[in-house]
Design brief:
Largest sheet: 4 strands, parallel
Structural class: alpha/beta
Radius of gyration: 27 Å
Strand order of the largest sheet: 4-3-9-10
Strand content: 5-15%
Bound molecules: zinc ion
Shape: globular
């Protein structure tokens, strides 16, 4: 099998080969750190983590360098730490602090939270995690180039990208111009030459984060959002690289504008060879929104469920499909992983290999639902006593970043019934055993009913009575 990936730009699934067989380069737009991330934000974290793992596996196999296995894989995921949303949140949350201090508090807190969340979801750290505020010099250089090449212009201390200067602008989203104008929610500032022109740099108000401006502008300013990714991908991956990823909501205008900036600055035919986008996520059939009260944060979900459950649930849907996040699917993920955990309890992952059928599914544009079906097939074999299948199942779960040890149904239930009193349960069971010995069955039944009401299921055997929590 060869790795095939769907490219949003050409609308086709193609064989993936890196530009440089020694060096696979992937960029993905990371979070803007101003608030707890919702579960939809975790989708690209998990999807591109699986792709990162797959690329590293194939690199180690020597798929692109003639069997040497020396290809390196670089995954860049940026942090946007300068943005109007951050400024607004900082002013709201810390009205008494100077703005820059408040911004630091907001970004540090959110940044820490994001890293805790993605680690709990089993995501590997990316190779490089550049921050926008550490790449202002590169952004200025890009802006200077664009002004010199006639693709950007200065107006009232702003620098704007001139969309009409790029004849094939809009190829990624393939939308008609009037739809793009509506989609971009462009404010028709009087200094814009064309309503589609977008901001590369803008002046900062007093107290706002500010840096020396490019293009001969005297007033200090700050970058627009789109230029950040062009600058950071250039710095860490070069002018053209292999894969650029993100959520489908970023196709327009963000990725369209990244392409415009990078291609015009470097005079290249493409910015990235593959553009990959994960689909939308809904919750219980509805669009997530704060006003509907169904805004589910990763943080809240992690309070109730181990990250491994959420990770598995995310992979149950193909990354390009719209996804419905439902409690029913969370329950399915719990059942599947608890079963895998039981079946691989005595399996040694060192005796296992990444299952061929799973690898083949992933090589077909990351078909994770099919890969999961293959995991279930391995589980069936393991259930029938096939030790090798159990080892392969364990090793394949490890490859996916699925830590089965954290997937115990009983542990999950105990965590969700935070008030469970194990001592009380044990003493009730002891009292019931005494009553049974004394043939006082009315009393022993009464105690069992009391335990049932507490959600406790008893299992009697010749060795005594054990208990577990009912689902
Ligand atoms: Zn970006």
């Amino acid at each position: 099998m060869e790795l095939k990936l769907y490219d949003t730009l050409t609308r086709e699934k193609r064989v993936f080969a890196p530009i440089d067989p020694q060096y696979v380069r992937m960029y993905r737009c990371g979070p803007t750190v101003y608030d707890f991330a919702h579960i939809g934000n975790a989708r690209p974290d998990i999807v591109f983590d699986v792709l990162f793992r797959l690329l590293r596996h194939l690199a180690k196999q020597g798929v692109w360098d003639g069997g040497k296995g020396e290809t390196t894989v670089t995954y860049v995921r940026n942090i946007t730490d300068v943005d109007d949303k951050i400024n607004a949140r900082a002013a709201e949350e810390y009205p008494d602090l100077p703005l820059n201090e408040a911004i630091r508090k907001v970004t540090e807190k959110t940044d820490r939270q994001f890293h805790e969340d993605v680690a709990a979801l089993g995501c590997l750290p990316p190779t490089v995690e550049p921050r926008a505020t550490e790449h202002i010099a590169e952004m200025r250089m890009l802006i200077e180039r664009l002004v010199q090449s006639g693709n950007a212009y200065v107006a009232e201390d702003n620098v704007l990208f001139s969309v009409p200067s790029m004849p094939d602008y809009g190829k990624l989203s393939k939308r008609p111009l009037d739809e793009m104008i509506a989609g971009a929610r462009v404010d028709v500032a009087p200094y814009k030459r064309d309503p589609m022109d977008f901001v590369l740099w803008k002046p900062s108000k007093p107290g706002e984060p500010a840096w020396p401006s490019p293009a001969g502008i005297a007033a200090p300013g700050r970058p627009g959002w789109h230029i950040e990714c062009s600058a950071m991908s250039w710095k860490h991956l070069g002018e053209t690289f292999d894969i650029h990823g993100g959520g489908i909501d970023l196709v327009f205008p963000h990725h369209e504008n990244e392409i415009a900036q990078s291609r015009c600055a470097f005079h290249t035919p493409v910015m990235a060879n593959f553009w990959m986008h994960n689909g939308f996520l809904q919750v219980e059939g509805e669009k997530m929104s704060k006003s509907l009260g169904n805004f589910v944060t990763i943080h809240d979900l992690l309070a109730d469920w181990p990250g491994v459950i959420l990770r598995f649930q995310m992979l149950m849907t193909h990354y390009r499909q719209p996804m419905d996040w439902t409690m029913a699917n969370t329950e399915r993920a719990v059942t599947a992983l608890d079963t895998f955990r039981h079946l691989t309890h005595t399996a040694n992952p060192a005796d296992g290999r990444l299952a061929e059928a799973v690898l083949a599914s992933l090589e077909d544009d990351l078909n994770t639902p099919l890969a999961i079906a293959e995991l279930h097939r391995l589980a069936d074999q393991a259930r029938n006593g096939d030790y090798q299948a159990a080892c392969d199942l364990r090793a394949t779960c490890d490859f996916f970043g699925l830590d089965l040890r954290a997937a115990s149904l009983q542990e999950i239930l105990k965590r969700q019934h935070g008030d469970i009193d194990e001592n009380k349960i044990e003493s009730l069971i002891a009292a019931r055993t005494m009553a049974r010995k004394a043939k006082n069955f009315a009393e022993s039944d009464r105690i069992r009913d009391e335990l049932t009401a507490m959600g406790v299921v008893l299992k009697d055997s010749k060795d005594g009575t054990t208990w577990e929590l009912a689902r």
